[in-house]
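Protocol check, entry for the methods section draft. Step 1: assemble the input record (protein sequence plus ligand SMILES). Step 2: submit for complex structure prediction. Step 3: store the structure tokens unaltered in the notebook. Ligand used here: magnesium ion. Step 1 record:
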Amino acid sequence: MAQDPEIIIIDPDVSARSDTADVLAAGNLTVVGEADYGITAVAVAKEHPPDVFLVSMEEPAARAIQTIEMLGSAAPDAAIIVTSSLTDASSVRRAMVAGASDYLTKPLKPEDVTRAVYAILEHEERKRRNADGDLTDLVPRGTIITIFGAKGGIGKTTIATNLATSLARMTDANVVLVDMDTRFGDVAIMMDVAVDSSIADLGRRIDELDRDSIKEELVSHHTGVSILPAPPHPTEWRDLTADHIEKIVNLLAQGHDYVVIDTPGTFNEIIATTLELADIILLITSMDLASIKDTALALEMLRAANISDDKMKLIINHSTSANSLREEDVERVLEYNVTWRIPHDYNVSNSIQLGIPIVVAKPYARVSRAIIDMAHALSGTPKERKGFLERFLAKVS
Ligand SMILES: Nc1ncnc2c1ncn2[C@@H]1O[C@H](COP(=O)(O)OP(=O)(O)O)[C@@H](O)[C@H]1O
Ligand SMILES: [Mg+2]
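Step 3, stored output:
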């Protein structure tokens, strides 16, 4: 990808061009030219095709649209980003149909422009590689969901086991649950399965593994979930590197619709890998002050690692009216919206003792409903389908 992408600004308004150039400079982007609509734009484009055109579009949009179409022919390898104060869907649609790859509304923010430019270039680069016959990006891959939290005892494993079970039960998806808790590894206990082979055994045979042979190493749970347990002894993690974890998770993702990863309340190289690979990170917090303080640090760390906010969903566990903090307080302190809340429910500890996920043991319990709803939202399947719970129960029994 272009390290220092070249950008040309197209805008009939000369003073607006220099404002846009200032915004780009603030976003560390290099402007290599600017022009009016129409023939001038095309001349500039032909003389020095940039990586990206930033085209301003205001009402009446006809000339901007015509210019976007002409730029597409004059410099077919350059991407076009439209900037506009028009926010209606039909303006966005017209720009896209004419050939724009992205649409930013004014006033422009440097970080938004920078993000848009790099996202488009990355996309174009991937398209080019695929066209060149490098099809590595085209291998179908399931969704990787990493359950993360700043400390232990906040319900990560409870949520991981029940979410994996819900996903397997309500869709006919293949789900694998990976115990990446490098300290305690409670998944096997919570799901009541015996550990014959663990992720550490996979590490020892890493070179022989492929997407089919790895499946033979998984434990089948009666709920339909496949489980990759943690090693019985935490010292066995020492032989696993970030490269091992990356390969294992990628192979699992090639053979499963969902890879749900449980993590410890600590941070290390292995956990960093699971966060980088994740399509969705569920960041779990409880409502006490210590947990919120730790969650604030975790959020800061995830952002510093350039993990995009789109991937991160904040979840409050143990939420009860008895919590001294309110959800609004949590959102204000963390400057982050809460996506889901899982109620506190005394049935949870009972089901853990029985080794049965609560969504199976007590599907009508409030905590089960909350986790099943979350699974619906994550999988994009409609919730509250009539008779769903009956079907859920029928499948389980
Ligand atoms: N929503 C909940 N309601 C009641 N108890 C819960 C809930 N979530 C977790 N627990 C309890 O909290 C304890 C810690 O949960 P666990 O999932 O092991 O946390 P972590 O994996 O973050 O260490 C468990 O004993 C579990 O029973
Ligand atoms: Mg745990």
